[in-house]
Amino acid sequence: MSTSEFRAGFACFVGRPNVGKSTLMNALVGTKVAITSSKPQTTRRAIRGIVHRPDSQLVIVDTPGLHRPRTLLGERLDSLVLSTLTEVDVIGFCVPANEPIGKGDRFIAEKLGALKKTPLIAVVTKCDLATRQQIAEQLLAVSSLAAFEEIIPVSAESGEQLDVLADLLTARLPESPPLYAGGELTDEPEQVLVAELIREAALEGVRDELPHSIAVVVEEMTPREGRDDLLDIYAFMYVERPSQKAIVIGPGGARLKDVGTRARKQIEAMLGTRVYLDLRIKVAKEWQRDPKQLRRLGFYD
């Protein structure tokens, strides 16, 4: 590639929930941009992470995992994914090395196969959790799912082959000047990132029925009067039922306190300033099925 040939454009990772898409984006960007959790379906927005390289700028759009929708929220998430897929320059289809290919993977591969114009790269993730034989078998199995231009095994944890993946993605971007100023790592507003970090802290160690039912809204984020070293953040966490509220609060409020402490540390690390976090819980009945409440919580049509 000649020095005058700068490339810039958009890539996205798709795959069923919890295959390591957010972790992969964070590893490529080099900082925490998308929330990652052991709970499936934790990403709700198409967060853009930006990878700056000497000859290119790769803007990664992180999408929620595609799945067969069961609620209005599920439908919104799936339409968000599909609309994102038609707007990017290259798609990375993620399948973990350590799990057999299932119905969900085939369902997504079928959807991707219909996007004739967008180059497809298969990314076999979590290779640090699989043996060499498992990886070889998975590469073969993935190759039969769709017409991929490349298939690459990677590990976001160990960093293995991440540079090669970035090369494969950027090679498929159009020639273009940079789309974002140097040094920017995301175009998400800080309040959205703060809300996502709170949500991530809330999801750690809770029961399986909770992930879809938590939404976080940051109501206010302002420097403390007379102090430029302290930021006051007021946030509400919304759940659907009083029983879920009890789970998040925990015995004697211990869980909520723990969530607040963990979230505050992550927020301070991200913003580079001390933070006072006021975190409260509200019940918003059946919000995942209510268009008005979905809009209020940031999930637009």
Describe the structure.
- The structure is a single chain.
- This protein has helices spanning 21-29, 72-85, 103-113, 132-143, 162-170, 190-203, 242-249, 254-271, 291-296, and strands at residues 7-14, 47-53, 56-62, 90-96, 120-125, 150-153, 215-223, 230-239, 274-283.
- The chain is of the alpha/beta class.
- The longest helix has 18 residues, at 254-271.
Topology:
Blueprint: E1 7-14, H1 21-29, E2 47-53, E3 56-62, H2 72-85, E4 90-96, H3 103-113, E5 120-125, H4 132-143, E6 150-153, H5 162-170, H6 190-203, E7 215-223, E8 230-239, H7 242-249, H8 254-271, E9 274-283, H9 291-296
Helix pairs in contact: 6-8
